[in-house]
Amino acid sequence: MTARTLETAGIATVIIGSALDIVTHCRVPRFLFTDLPLGNSLGRPFDREMQYHTVETGLALIESVDGPCVVISDLRWSDDDSWKLNYMKIDDSNREELRRMGEENRRRRKQQKAQGLRRS
Amino acid sequence: MRETIRYMERTRLFYEAQGFDRSYQWAHFDDIPFHRPDKPLSESTVAIVTTAISDDDRETPMISRTARSIPIERVPERFFTDDLSWDKVTTHTDDRGSYFPLEPLIALQDSGVIGRLSPRYHFIPTEYSQRQTIDSDAPRICEACIEDEVDVAILVPL
Questions:
Q1: Would you give the DSSP letter of residue B151?
Q2: Quick check: A68 and B133 CB within 8 A?
Q3: pLDDT (tens digit, 9 = 90+) per residue, A54-71?
Q4: Hey, are the CB atoms on B35 and A29 less than 8 Å from each other?
Q5: What is the DSSP secondary structure assignment for residue B131, as one 8-state letter?
Q6: Would you say B96 and B55 are in contact if contact means Cβ atoms under 8 Å apart?
Q7: Among B84, B91, B155, whose Cβ lies nearest the Cβ of A45?
């Protein structure tokens, strides 16, 4: 949404991110998708070559495309894609914990509301 | 293309497992704004937009965080990312370079690929309320970018 606001104001934008479905659902001007874990969209930690390459590729879109685009980077986190199972995984080992987290979340929101802190 | 993670579905199921019965409605728009740059990248001022906050602000509750523009000299060695939704099982955020493009942009400035790095970088909170983002946070960042004569912005959400 921020990219859309900037673009409308005449500032060319590129998003570099790793949530393909979320960003394409929103519809943004330029998106470089890196199939990497959330939190490391530019590249593996301490892998400067990968990180620099990603930034250069993203910036290149500013001049090279004539309209909205989604570019899929060919970078890989590892040869094995099993890491993709990790994020927000739900199984018998954490169902009860998640239920408790939900209760705590609702309790905290109620408390914040009582303190006058609100989502708008 | 290899199968990518379906974050929208994962998020829905995750919050259902926590007992929330109303799914988050992800932002969607019919149109896509697009601006062709007025000048080459080599003459452009480039700004960074991040969703990570500096460690100084870690005590601010998520619900109270608002967009901020911070001098680039004050980029922290380490951002506070603990309460953001990144993949904490697979990886870590100990390396700022994995999500904040400061060093590559400095190198690209030095080599003349970009004109200059903007004097400020910008924090935008990961906000549940789309209205807050559209009506308040994004315009605030936009105003700051205009003040800094930014031509290009790189946004890297965590």
A1: -
A2: no
A3: 999 999 999 999 999 999
A4: yes
A5: H
A6: no
A7: B91
**In this predicted model, what pLDDT tens digit does every residue of A86-112 receive, in sequence order?**
999 999 999 999 999 999 989 988 888
B32 touches chain A (CB under 8 A): yes
Distances from the Cα of B41 to the Cα of A76, B36, B92, B95, B104, angstroms: 28, 11, 32, 27, 15
Identify all chain B residues contacting A90, using CB atoms and an 8 Å cutoff.
Answer: 13-14, 17
For chain A, what are the domain ranges?
2-79, 90-120
CB–CB of A22 and B28 under 8 A?
A: no
Give the C-alpha distances (Å, rounded to integers) separating B95 from A43, A47, A79, A91: 10, 9, 22, 30
3 state SS of B1: coil
d(CA A103, CA A53): 43
SS3 of residue A4 by DSSP: helix
* Integer Cα distance of A58 and B91 in angstroms: 22
Whether this model's pTM surpasses 0.90: yes
Q: Contact at 8 Å (CB) between B135 and B142? A: no
Distance of alpha carbon A82 from alpha carbon A84, whole angstroms: 5
